[in-house]
Design a protein that fits this description.
This protein has a domain of about 45 residues: 2-Layer Sandwich (Erythroid Transcription Factor GATA-1, Chain A), CATH 3.30.50.10. The protein is elongated and about 60 Å long. Strands 1-2 form a two-stranded antiparallel sheet. By secondary structure, the chain is of the alpha+beta class. About 5% of the residues are buried.
């Protein structure tokens, strides 16, 4: 007898079976999945630290100007 792994939905905290049969895992529904995506898109959720974009792009932008016609 195997017991299913249950995890709380990150959005609504409802207990959800964590399984490949759940297309929204670890969320309980598409609604909760989209709510979480919206939070990331609006920067409601962030990963702490210095933004990587500044480091990656600053050197690439130097010397670039509008193309001469």
């Amino acid at each position: 007898m195997s017991s299913a792994t249950r995890v709380p939905c990150p959005t609504c905290k409802k207990a959800v079976v964590y399984s490949t049969k759940n297309p929204f895992r670890p969320f309980c529904s598409e609604r909760c999945k989209l709510i979480d995506l919206g939070e990331w898109a609006s920067e409601g959720h962030r990963i702490a630290g210095k933004p990587a974009v500044d480091e990656m792009m600053s050197g690439d932008l130097e010397g670039l100007g509008s193309p001469e016609e």
